[in-house]
Amino acid sequence: MPDPAYVAQILVSGLGVGCIYGLIGIGFCVIYNASGIVNFAQGAFVMLGGMITHALVQRMGLPLLPAAVGAILLVAALGIVVERVVVRPLWVRNATMFAMILATLAAQIVIERATLILFGDQPKTLPAFTDLPPLRIAGVAISFQFLWIVGASAAIILGLAAFFARTRTGKAMRACAINREAAALQGIPVGTMLALSFALSAALGAVAGILITPTQYTAFNVGLPFAISGFIAAIVGGFGRPFGAFLGGLALGVAQAVAVFALDAGFKNIAALSVLLVFLFLRPQGILGAAK
Amino acid sequence: MTNLRITTSPDRVRALLRLLPGAIGIALVAYALLAGGYLISVVSFGLIYAIFVTGLNLFMGYTGQVSFGQNAFAAISGYASAILTATYGWEPLLATATGLAGALAVALVVGYPTLRLKGHYLAMATLAIGLIAYEVAVQWQSVTQGYMGISGVPPLGIAGFEITSERGNLLFLAAIAALGVTAAALIRHSRVGRAMAAIAGSEDAARALGIDVARYKLLAFLIAAVYAALAGSLFVHVVGFVSPEVFGLHMVNLAFTMLYVGGIGTVMGPLVGAVVIMLLPETFRAFKDYQDLAYGAALILLLIYAPRGLASLADLLRRRAGEGRRA
């Protein structure tokens, strides 16, 4: 029987990563709801969040907080660029779902390679947001970064809930999710909502990337595994339900932490991806059921 | 993706057009043989990729499915070839056969649950499979030597006779690629190929016609895996070296760009696309780092502006030749 404190430790680390998956999963849902598109370039936003923050801190000498805000804004702008340059032209041509997937995956590769050329292939990390030793509660070490991740995720979810429920723009985006044609007939600019959903989704990805970077590292090629994890989180939560996606992320993070703890750390990504596949094979309709 | 016009009464223009890519291919191989030097390796890589992309086209162009994970099968067979020959001193041919069998077995085990998925789910699951194969190649250092890769892989040959000259390699690869493309053409016009085309058109309609959709999808997946595995092993034996990067996302990017340049769903498209894409960067060799960037960008542009690739050029010629019949 394993030590209960050790089990709790695994749970904590799983929940931390799970929050990150959840945020990325929400990013998938936001775009999917506005357009029916699954954006395979989602991982690029996560990767760039960490990379740009690092570059702003290291090269421009900015403090962490303004650097993070700057990175989030830049990545959100890039989300709009991807929407305008890649997605919109296909969208207006009524391209097949597969063409859209392939084009966004190609966008992911282009962004990845551009990052490699600009920043090099060395892994980079960020300092912990709060440089204090971890808290010890009943033998379980809880790092301040974990608290940051959980706190920021909770704040974002509350903010999103308010945005979708209260604001005019948020309601317009929800209308698009329910029925795009009807929304357009009501005078909602569906095209603008698409661009907005990419900006919002990219920003969410960037936040996730910035939050997770101090606990591991970032490099030009970390995006894709995160994207796949976030996608599965969205599936587990029932695709198209942002808050389901977050719960899905938590479930996935814990499942992965358990799978990883049994294995060598080097095989972490393999175990993680395998857990995702098993989820996909067993419950493609999600645990909470699909939104539509 | 589902452009599957089967000509029943080929007139002279069509027949000539259909022969054109093959003729150009033969001319190119002959020219490379005469010219020698670097062109030989360029055309050789083009032919290896042509085999890979032909398999991809079978699964995606003919059957209308999605796979971003074919590089996994190239990696399995390629690594089996490298490890069995370089580390254990097996005959290259036996190692390649073992690699193919291994890739086929994995494709069977993985394909069964994966192919029950559709659309986005299928795309993401296959992407994960490719990524898992890459990660295993990186992490299983005791066997694969990680990022370092395995060098000193012997060339192909039987019982002491090795293909050591570059020209011999080129001829051998040309023969294999020709066989591969011919086999794909035969499959396409066979009972199996028609079942695949029906599935690409509509799964429900295919099922109504009595086609066992799941079985034919799996069959197409397995055939594509064999093509991918063969390409992987050939690559390793021709280059004499393997590393995870050979079979990484770069391969997926490159293969899809080739498929779309040549024209998805056409018999000759993969061959044409592979050779064109291999020849192009030779003019930009100074910008090697920018290759993936350029391929990715080119792929996006193709998807937007010319989703049928060079094949749409042939359409244009056909229309000019007075063939106004549209499907």
Explain the overall architecture.
The complex is a heterodimer of chains A (292) and B (327). The N and C termini of chain A lie far apart (43 Å). In chain A, helix 1 (4-35) packs parallel to helix 5 (144-166) and helix 9 packs across helix 10 (242-261). Chain A has one domain. Chain A has helices at residues 4-35, 42-60, 64-92, 97-119, 144-166, 168-178, 180-185, 190-212, 223-236, 242-261, 268-282, and strands at 135-137, 140-142. Helix content of chain A is 74%, strand content 2%. Chain A is built from eleven helices and two strands, in the order H-H-H-H-E-E-H-H-H-H-H-H-H. Chain A is an all-alpha fold and 292 residues long. The model of chain A has no long low-confidence stretch (mean pLDDT 86). Chain A has a two-stranded antiparallel ribbon. Chain A is globular. Chain B has a single domain, classed as ABC transporter involved in vitamin B12 uptake, BtuC. Chain B has helices at 12-35, 38-62, 70-87, 92-114, 119-139, 141-144, 166-188, 191-201, 203-208, 213-239, 249-262, 269-279, 291-305, 311-320; strands at 150-151, 157-158, 161-162, 241-242. In chain B, the strands form two sheets. In chain B, strands 1-4 form a two-stranded antiparallel sheet. Chain B has a two-stranded antiparallel sheet with strand order 2-3. In chain B, strand 2 and strand 3 (161-162) form a beta hairpin. In chain B, helix 2 (38-62) runs antiparallel to helix 12 (269-279), helix 4 runs antiparallel to helix 10 (213-239) and helix 11 crosses helix 12. The A-B interface holds A 38, 40, 85-86, 89-90, 93, 95-99, 101-103, 105-107, 109-110, 112-114, 116-117, 221, 224-225, 228, 231-232, 235, 266-267, 269-270, 273-274, 276-277, 280-281, 284 and B 1, 66, 68, 113-114, 116-117, 119-121, 123-125, 127-129, 131-132, 135-136, 139, 249, 253, 256, 289-290, 292-293, 295-297, 299-300, 303-304, 307.
